[in-house]
Design a protein that fits this description.
single chain; alpha/beta; Rossmann fold; Hypothetical Protein Ta0175, Chain: A, domain 2; 8-stranded mixed sheet; 4-stranded antiparallel sheet; 10 helices; about 35% helix
Length: about 290
């Protein structure tokens, strides 16, 4: 049997948040990949270069696929190289208008507290900004929608908070783009069995997946407001049975970051729970 793990990176798989992490969890995931058939998909707001940087810096497993730029790019690993999915690019390009984006960019940067992110954090199908953490999110979103509608432009607005820097993150991407729609595209392309697929995340830009029918894990280190939002979205979309909130009661681990991913995988796929425990037991840093 083959499994598919789609996971966010920052503060989900990568332990770069403010909460404690279990050093054994990423090595255990490496070991698990050697024991079961597991396709690995990274689903991140990072671009592909920053994904590669994270793999090296945190010694992450190399994935089979990478969904980057908040769902606006899809890559497949081909030996040691990344190959971009041109079909997904074509789908999104149809509704993207660079001239309108430039017009919108100017107006967004006039909003109080909003500023453009660095050039390396922009991409062909993503326009990214910072906003002040204390900003009223609902008011900001209303103002952004007003600007976009005035420009007669259809786009997807993704708002999230980087807790480590207490900075708001705003991404404008094509209307058809999101983490969930990119995953769904990959599911159809690769004929993945959704019963064997699970997604893990921690923040606001993961909510498109939490509102879907896909099995999803919210790691324990997610902010309380994000947990409440995930539950609320689950109820509104009648998918509460496909949202698992890691709690840290799994083999003495915290449930934070990768430990929460392992906990959630054991929940959705109980047949591999013993295999996960075996990998943890073999690591000297585990204390449970």
């Amino acid at each position: 049997m083959s499994y598919i793990l789609c996971t966010d990176l920052d503060r989900t798989l990568i332990p770069n948040g403010i909460q404690a992490h279990d050093p054994c969890s990423i090595p255990a995931l490496h070991s698990l990949l050697d024991k079961i058939k597991l396709k690995l998909v990274y689903v991140s707001g990072r671009d592909i270069n920053l994904v590669d940087q994270a793999i090296k810096q945190y010694r992450l497993p190399v994935p089979d696929f990478a969904i980057t730029d908040v769902g606006s790019q899809i890559y497949q690993r081909n030996n040691t190289l990344w190959q971009i999915n041109t079909r997904w690019q074509s789908v999104l390009q149809e509704s993207w208008d660079n001239a309108k984006i430039e017009n919108i960019k100017t107006k967004l940067c006039r909003l109080n507290g909003v500023r453009l992110q660095e050039p390396e954090k922009q991409s062909r199908l993503k326009s990214s900004y910072y906003f002040a953490a204390e900003t009223d999110i609902s008011e900001l979103k209303k103002n952004i929608l007003h600007i976009i509608n005035r420009a007669n432009f259809n786009a997807n607005i993704v708002l999230s908070l980087d807790e480590t820097s207490a900075t708001g993150l705003l991404d404008i991407i094509p209307k058809e783009a999101s983490k969930n729609s990119a995953i769904q595209f990959l599911i159809n392309q690769e004929s993945f069995d959704t019963d064997q697929l699970v997604f893990s995340g921690d923040s606001g830009n993961d909510m498109s997946v939490f509102s879907s029918q896909l099995n999803a894990i919210l790691v324990n280190n997610a902010e309380p407001d994000i947990k409440k939002l995930a539950i609320k979205i689950g109820k509104e979309n009648n998918v509460t049975n496909t949202i698992y909130l890691a709690s840290g009661d799994f083999f003495g681990l915290t449930g934070n970051y990768c430990a929460g991913i392992l906990e959630g995988m054991a929940y959705y796929f109980p047949e591999i729970k013993d295999t996960i425990q075996e990998q943890l037991n073999q690591l000297p840093t585990v204390n449970h």
